[in-house]
Amino acid sequence: MNSKDLFGKALQDYQNGNYSEDLITSTNISDEDELPLPYLFRDYKDMPKLEQKALELAKGKILDVGCGAGSHSLYLQKKGYDVRAIDVSMGAVDVAKKRGLIDVMLKDLIDEKSKYDTILLLMNGTGIFEELSKVSKYLSHLKSLLNLDGQILIDSTDIKYMYEDEDGGYWQDMNATYYGELDYFLSYKGEDELPMKWLYLDFDTLKSACDHVGLRCELVMIGDYFDYLAKLTLS
Prior knowledge:
Blueprint: H1 6-15, E1 23-27, E2 30-35, H2 49-57, E3 61-65, H3 71-78, E4 82-87, H4 90-98, E5 104-106, E6 116-121, H5 135-144, E7 146-157, E8 181-188, E9 191-192, E10 196-199, H6 203-213, E11 215-222, E12 227-234
Helix pairs in contact: 1-4, 5-6
């Protein structure tokens, strides 16, 4: 948690009525892009179909990992579910509380110890794994948090298309480090956040990592932009 928490500051500004500019994101393979703050406060009707599907499938006691402004958790809480939301951004936790989320805390996934029926990792949930070498560690930990009939609902994107050239070939050495490992940069109001590692996983790689730690991995839905929703259960 050694960041400047610019993400949290931006959420707090929006929540407190001080919205004047959006977050700027980029990666080592993509140019700057705006992340509009209102999007992080969206209602169910404005969510992508993958997220709506994940919320429909959620059941029992729920953990929302990387909850941000708490939009997913708030929807589930209103439905009457017992939801715990966690995030490593102090600002995000503060905003989620102000928006009415009952059980929300500043916590890293690795420090979570309770058992759940549903664990949500949405908005590229594989991102927090950081790099391919850490996927097994995170999946094993997630597995330890599942009740017997529990499920992990996680989304990601196969970003191989970002390396394609006009001839349909690939400009990256696909045998080098895994192509979904990115350096992620964020800035807000002229300040730069410390760069962080962020992982996009194609479905087959996620599935083989799940096989390795004893989780069953099934494809629930494919989105419009090479993204997908997967459901992991105890095998």
